[in-house]
Amino acid sequence: MKRRRYQGSDVARALTIEDLRQMAHRRVPNFALEYVEGGAEEEITLHRNRSVFDDIALVPRTLVDVSERRLGIELFGRPSALPFLIGPTGFNGFLTHEGDVRLAQAAAKAGIPFTLSTVSTAALEDVAQRAGGRLWMQLYLYRNREWARTLIERAERAGYEALVLTVDIAVYGNREWDVRNFAKPMQLDLRNKLDVLMHPRWLFDVMIPHGTPHLANVSGLLPPGKTSTRGASPVLGRLHNASLNWEDVAWLRDIWPRTLIIKGVNSVADATLAAQYGADGVVLSNHGGRQLDGAISPMEVLPEVAAALKGKLTIMLDGGFRRGSDIVKALLLGANAVLLGRAALYGLGAGGGPGAARAIDILASEIDRVIGLLGTDCIAGLDPTCIRWRAQGLLHGSNVGEEGHGPHLGPEPMRTPHPEYRE
What we know:
Elements: H1 17-27, H2 30-37, H3 44-51, E1 56-58, E2 73-75, E3 78-80, E4 84-86, H4 99-110, E5 114-116, H5 124-131, E6 135-139, H6 145-158, E7 162-166, H7 176-179, E8 182-184, E9 187-188, H8 190-197, H9 200-207, H10 229-237, H11 246-255, E10 259-265, H12 268-276, E11 281-284, H13 298-309, E12 314-317, H14 324-332, E13 337-340, H15 342-374, E14 387-391, E15 394-397
Parallel strand pairs: 4-13, 5-6, 6-7, 7-10, 10-11, 11-12, 12-13
Antiparallel strand pairs: 1-14, 2-3, 8-9, 14-15
């Protein structure tokens, strides 16, 4: 009998993130899924973010008492229930009504931080009031500094504990497959209009009776009446700041008194500069394969950054995480925590808030199982000798030592993307 995944809509029956992904594909129309799934140009970076995990092997230890396992970590001086958190993703109202609020509520219930995007479809104050928990605010530093200052002040008043500056989008990536869904900017072509009608559950959740979602945090940047996603997207694309530089980070450090995180660095040099300019943490990221096609995966640069900066600032990353074992591999290579993007959105698209909660639960249970099978009872006890990196066709042992130095990666062979891989 041929293997077959669950074909229904009950998110409680999803066993993996891939199950939730396929459920989201059945529920959400193509144009909204393409925004989630797609990458830049040939999607080489997108595929690399997934295939890199195939080149990392785990070496388990045995005869260790792992009867009681603990998954909690400390993140910026505060406890967090799991070694991952929800990263910033935009336009979530297209996956389900009040998608940002639902995702934040799932994170708060799980005891992990949630990062709200600048281009969310929920106001930052509304998320803080209705979800609570540990909240971080992502910032695109558009050319209008006064607007940025106002947004930062709003986040501070609302109790957001961290500001996450995204720095890898000074020039907008070439997302060709996303563009192909539209006859003109933000106007779906006929094929996609018909596809929307084929998804009645989504239609009556998102569009009826609520209408097109609006971007709730950028009204000061936009002309009157242009806050809907249809009117806002073309305007915002012209407001990205191609002159963004480290002096802007210094300005931000001066006006933001709490935790400052720089997201989108992907080299030791930039991570070092982030520390020098006062950042408390970095997120190694290639924007989910949506910016520079052909870029290195954050997992590939992680060991070098950890060797240079572990203990000097908090090191996090995103990009391609779909399994608990993926997250454990990142922790073994020196990460303090992992940010989830698409993995959480698949749950949100599959079943709203309960789907997002299910995605978190799946990954938590997988991490719990993986650390037990590795022979450790807690995240802090992960042994860095339990990882091997395949280089040029061979598996080489990690040279992580007592000082936390990562393995020498060396040149990596080109990997052939798998057609099902997505960030």
